[in-house]
């Protein structure tokens, strides 16, 4: 188990004795190899199949998703991956179905608890981010400040009078724009 990440080691430690025994069982390995021979799986892909079987026993990969994972991992057709998954399920995992279901139930419960915690944290952060001031108070404060300061001296007038318009004049053979 030294090649596995810490999370997988923890999952292994939590397994029932029956599942731990199955992982180390030469009989289970022989059944998997018989399936490999029956479906003529290339030697370089056997390790991928063995890893997926181990992931099922550890509760990382749900049994219903095995066919899809076989297709991706081994690069085989969907109908063949379904047949291999069916064979693995009946010949390898059928004796351990109850233990596997217990793992998935406890995993789904912990995942739902984690999701609930995440939702609580999100709600708390949203409540903290909501400003406690009312927007109408901000508008009233701004109007009060304008009354105290008077009109903005940098604000240009919107209306343009005849006096404010630019004129073009000709002076000494040159054209000038006069404001």
| Mean model confidence by pLDDT | 76
How many helical stretches?
A: 8
Order of helices and strands: HHHHHHHHEE
Compute the separation of the termini in Å: 87 Å
Overall outline: elongated
Please give the domain count. 1
Poorly predicted tracts of residues: none
Q: How many DSSP-defined strands?
A: 2
Q: Which secondary-structure class do the elements indicate?
A: mainly alpha
Strand content: 5-15%
Specify the helix fraction band.
55-70%
Main sheet attributes: strand count, strand direction, barrel closure:
2 strands, antiparallel
Radius of gyration: 37 Å
Strand order of the largest sheet: 1-2
Features:
elongated, 179 residues, 6% strand, 8 helices, two-stranded antiparallel ribbon, mainly alpha
Set out the fold topology:
Layout (H helix, E strand, L loop, with lengths): L5 H9 L2 H8 L1 H13 L4 H16 L7 H9 L3 H16 L3 H33 L5 H15 L17 E5 L2 E5 L1
Antiparallel strand pairs: 1-2
Helix pairs in contact: 3-4, 3-6, 4-5, 5-6
């Amino acid at each position: 188990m030294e090649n596995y990440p810490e999370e997988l080691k923890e999952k292994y430690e939590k397994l029932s004795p029956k599942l731990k025994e199955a992982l180390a069982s030469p009989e289970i390995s022989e059944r998997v190899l018989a399936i490999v021979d029956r479906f003529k799986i290339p030697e370089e892909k056997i390790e991928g199949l063995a890893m997926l079987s181990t992931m099922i026993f550890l509760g990382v990969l749900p049994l219903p998703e095995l066919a899809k994972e076989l297709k991706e991992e081994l690069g085989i057709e969907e109908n063949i991956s379904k047949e291999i998954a069916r064979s693995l399920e009946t010949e390898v995992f059928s004796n351990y179905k109850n233990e596997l279901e217990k793992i998935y139930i406890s995993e789904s419960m912990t995942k739902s608890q984690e999701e609930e915690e995440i939702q609580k944290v999100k709600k708390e952060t949203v409540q903290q981010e909501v400003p406690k001031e009312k927007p109408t108070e901000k508008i009233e404060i701004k109007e009060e400040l304008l009354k105290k300061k008077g009109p903005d001296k940098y604000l240009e007038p919107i209306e343009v009078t005849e006096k404010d318009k630019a004129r073009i004049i000709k002076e000494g053979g040159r054209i000038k724009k006069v404001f």
